[in-house]
């Protein structure tokens, strides 16, 4: 994938998300409730049925507070100070449904909201807010059998250290000698290996799909993709070689030696969101003998000429939000189908470069894998 195109896609997506949050939408319903991602017992931030967010911060000795929403924190909602020392404010318009990062700028300094839980994004721990989605049931915590997400440390000679990954094993794993396919699932720029289980709810999505009989159970491996070794704005300088070595020469052998996997190409997939999609694009082309399934989630496209003379993938999955110029994905799918590839596209309605797009994408991708 062209890195310049990737940078443009990300910039446009972030700008669209910010503009949406700042667009007036008429009268505001006063049915605000605490965000699902608040710290225990904290009333703010709050969200209402229209998708507006309201913030309230106690800072009696401060002069100015602005809430910056979205990856990178563009723009902001200014809060007004009351005589009681509380700063309060509401977004100028409804936000997209789903998860969003944000932080506070207080008198020029950057801080997290003490009322909200924190999530790793923008290369730092950011506050998180959840705008309940109409279709949130597919990633909700339900009374179904649950798999496990465990932290592992695997040796990496190439980086001269032990590296961390999180591994999702489906319900029933280890109770028999059954072996499972594996999806290697990558985060985006500014995030790390915690993103897909924390922000993405990947384990709950899988638990629910398995309980509904919609997927063949498989293992998911999530590790740090070294995306943050480059600063935002310099993504074009990123080189895949170091991470490719860690993933293909060190992590995959470790997983196959320590988990009940089916260790062959037909039972191994790679997917990634945003810059993780860029990594997936490069690694699957470089190591087509290792992966049978490729998925780019808001992470670019494949072209037939790139895939020529390489081991043919069993599936190519391309997705994005409807606010991310989906015509690029749809046109690529048509071209790939004409060239004889099995390819599936998905466009998430009314979302941009954000986690509801990627949660929905995983929901659509998972049933297609390993069949």
The overall pLDDT, averaged over residues, is 92
Give the proportion of residues in helices: 10-25%
Q: Kindly estimate the percentage of residues that lie in beta strands according to DSSP.
A: 25-35%
User: How many helical elements?
Assistant: 8
Descriptive overview:
By secondary structure, the chain is α+β, with helices and mostly antiparallel strands. The chain is 24% helix and 27% strand. The protein has eight helices and 19 strands. It has helices spanning 3-21, 195-198, 202-211, 241-258, 275-286, 304-307, 327-338, 355-365; strands at 33-34, 46-47, 53-58, 65-69, 77-78, 80-81, 86-90, 98-106, 109-111, 118-121, 124-131, 148-156, 161-169, 182-186, 219-223, 268-273, 293-297, 315-321, 343-348. The strands form three sheets. An eight-stranded mixed β-sheet has the order 12-13-15-14-16-17-18-19, sandwiched between helices. Strands 4, 5, 8, 9, 10 and 11 form a six-stranded antiparallel β-sheet that branches. A five-stranded antiparallel β-sheet has the order 1-2-3-7-6, with no helix packed on it. A hairpin with a 5-residue loop joins strand 2 and strand 3. The radius of gyration is 21 Å and the shape is globular.
What is this structure's SSE topology?
Blueprint: H1 3-21, E1 33-34, E2 46-47, E3 53-58, E4 65-69, E5 77-78, E6 80-81, E7 86-90, E8 98-106, E9 109-111, E10 118-121, E11 124-131, E12 148-156, E13 161-169, E14 182-186, H2 195-198, H3 202-211, E15 219-223, H4 241-258, E16 268-273, H5 275-286, E17 293-297, H6 304-307, E18 315-321, H7 327-338, E19 343-348, H8 355-365
Parallel strand pairs: 14-15, 14-16, 16-17, 17-18, 18-19
Antiparallel strand pairs: 1-2, 2-3, 3-7, 4-5, 4-8, 6-7, 8-9, 8-11, 10-11, 12-13, 13-15
Signal peptide: 1-21
Protein name: Esterase
Organism: Pararcticibacter amylolyticus
